[in-house]
């Protein structure tokens, strides 16, 4: 059994916290919010395996917006090695947090995550 929705909620909180934001589900369009949301898309898709539609519903965005965000993160990762390292570090910090939240809120055994894409 694969549970995605609660994990996306925990991931939203974790990414917002990592960026010093209170929430990613907002209409703010500043670079800080946009980049944080795009990282949420990337981690949710590549680490959890959530579909574009699931990610979009979790953050009140269209699946095409999620697709654009994924492409933006891939481009930044390919052209900025510092950003790629920062993203990998944040991802490594977020996984244990999500697992702990999942268990703490009665989700049973912590979900298994896919390996990070190179």
How are the SSEs placed, and which strands pair?
Layout: H1 5-18, H2 31-48, H3 52-59, H4 63-79, H5 81-104
Q: Overview of this structure, please?
A:
With about 120 residues, this protein is mainly α. It has a single domain (about 5-105), classed as Chromosomal Replication Initiator Protein Dnaa, Chain: A (Orthogonal Bundle), CATH 1.10.1750.10. Helices cover about 70% and strands about 0% of the residues. The protein has 5 helices and no strands. It has helices at about 5-20, 30-50, 50-60, 65-80, 80-105.
CATH H-tier superfamily: DnaA protein, C-terminal DNA-binding domain
Structural class: mainly alpha
> What characterizes the major β-sheet?
none
Amino- and carboxy-terminal Cα gap = 27 Å
Task: Provide keyphrases for this structure.
118 residues; mainly alpha; Chromosomal Replication Initiator Protein Dnaa, Chain: A; 69% helix; globular
Short description:
The mean pLDDT is 85. This protein has a single domain, classed as Orthogonal Bundle (Chromosomal Replication Initiator Protein Dnaa, Chain: A), CATH 1.10.1750.
């Amino acid at each position: 059994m694969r549970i995605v929705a609660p994990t996306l909620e925990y991931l939203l909180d974790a990414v917002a916290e990592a960026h010093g934001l209170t929430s990613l589900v907002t209409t703010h369009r500043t670079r800080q919010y946009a980049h944080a949301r795009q990282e949420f898309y990337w981690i949710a898709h590549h680490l959890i395996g959530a579909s574009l539609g699931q990610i979009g519903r979790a953050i009140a965005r269209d699946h095409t917006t999620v697709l654009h965000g994924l492409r933006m993160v891939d481009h930044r990762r390919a052209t900025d090695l510092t950003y790629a390292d920062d993203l990998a570090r944040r991802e490594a910090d977020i996984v244990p947090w999500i697992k702990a939240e999942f268990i703490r809120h009665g989700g049973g055994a912590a979900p298994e995550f896919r390996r990070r894409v190179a």
